[in-house]
Input
Amino acid sequence: MAIILDGKKLSETIKQEIAVEVKKLTDSSLLSPGLAVIIVGNNPASKVYVSSKKKACAATGVFSLEVALDENISQEKLIEEINKLNKDDRINGILLQLPLPKHLDEHAALEAIKPEKDVDGFHPINVGKLYIGLDTFVPCTPKGIMELLKRNNVQIAGKNAVVIGRSNIVGKPIGALLMKENATVTIAHSKTQNLPELVKNADIVVSAIGKPKFVKGDWIKDGAVVVDVGINSVDDPSSPKGYKLVGDVEYEEAEKKASYITPVPGGVGPMTIAMLLSNTLKARMNK
Ligand code: NAD
Output
């Protein structure tokens, strides 16, 4: 039976640590860290994410500002709003909630955020710094995964790690971070030919695909570490909501073979918001 990598519990510990640091600032009459979250339009999932980010800020004493913009805003106006926040001394971190409505240029908008305030770590300058091993803002989900592994004393150096998924927000950066910690990293994706074989040889498996129960329990090597980033909603008539959240991995079967495993929900998910607060505190301390 695997040891559960409990992201819910660890994220609470980290939030308490952040609250202590924030209190030290305010006790010294210094400004608390400030996070601005820009949301464009009415995407219901984005609204839920923004509201949980605001709650987490409030719980740790981080100042938060929600900038809600109209669905039809022009690119120029959006950049103008970002520039206002770039100049605002109360704001240390700026997060642009994705996805943006289709008429907007996401890359250009992310590039408009000052790299020193880019707490999501999506600005090309910060992406580049991550790849060459310089201190930077590490994207929150991969940063949360590394924190979960390290604080549970999971050995990374010399291990074979297989990352499934090559997105800019999860797959690529977690690959870079595992390599930095001296794992031998394979990044698999939708065109990979022999995925079950690759996973069967992996000491560490990170799945970031977005397909329920895609990774089969019998692909998992005995004693492997399994990190399931996927969040998938599946029908569940027994739940009051009519659905439940599951990961990418067949959890019950994988748990029998793994040495460590993250549950969904309660694994990687809660760590992401804790890391956003951590990056916002970092941006404040860098000033
Ligand atoms: P994405 O859609 O950008 O990327 C998915 C990746 O999966 C792609 O790189 C694709 O090549 C790969 N893929 C698709 N089909 C595949 C197949 N058959 N075999 C191998 N690879 C395949 O998704 P993302 O933004 O990286 O998110 C992935 C999952 O993680 C989603 O379920 C998302 O909801 C979840 N997620 C969770 C958190 C969190 O905080 N826990 C954060 C971000 C994303």
About this structure: The pocket of nicotinamide-adenine-dinucleotide is lined by residues 141, 164-167, 169-171, 188-190, 192, 195, 208-210, 229-232, 268-269, 272 (CB under 6 Å). The two ends are 46 Å apart (CA to CA).
